[in-house]
Amino acid sequence: xxxxxxxxxxxxxxxxxxxxxxxxxxxxxxxxxxxxxxxxxxxxxxxxxxxxxxxxxxxxxxx
Length: 63
Ligand SMILES: [Zn+2]
Hints:
By secondary structure, the chain is mainly α. It is built from three helices and no strands. The chain has helices spanning about 15-20, 35-40, 45-55. The model has no long low-confidence stretch (mean pLDDT about 95). Zinc ion (ZN) binds near residues 32, 34 and 35.
């Protein structure tokens, strides 16, 4: 299982997927939504909206 490289929380598949979409498709370590939001200086809700957006587009990275 994958852990957030910043805070060590267990990651959900969508968190890995959004990291790949927003940061680096070939990444092998990831940030959770909270740490990713802090990294980009945006709200967690913004990240969650992006997850929804990509899922609705049918991106295969998302469940
Ligand atoms: Zn984290």
